[in-house]
Amino acid sequence: MRREDEFDPGDAGDGHRDDTPARSTTTGIGPQQILIGLLVLVLVVFAIANFDRVRVNFLVFDTEARLITVIAVAGGLGFVIGWLVGRPSRRARRMLRRRDLDE
Length: 103
What we know:
Low-confidence stretches: none
Largest sheet: 2 strands, antiparallel
Shape: elongated
């Protein structure tokens, strides 16, 4: 019988140790998030500095809008398109999950 102070959480109780390294999860802000934040800040400052009315030509109609609105919409569309393109497909996500489970 084991004493409480001899307990080893890596020991499965059958004499075999589980020596697989634990996965480290990173929390906090990384360089990519800092870069994205800076780019968003530059976009916001640029949009605020350009507050004039401009003529916007869409494919089917023309209109006038504030340049800040045009810049914000273009930035939002760019973000959504970049997120959709950079996101792995369902098949790739499934393969990544299988690979993680096999390790």
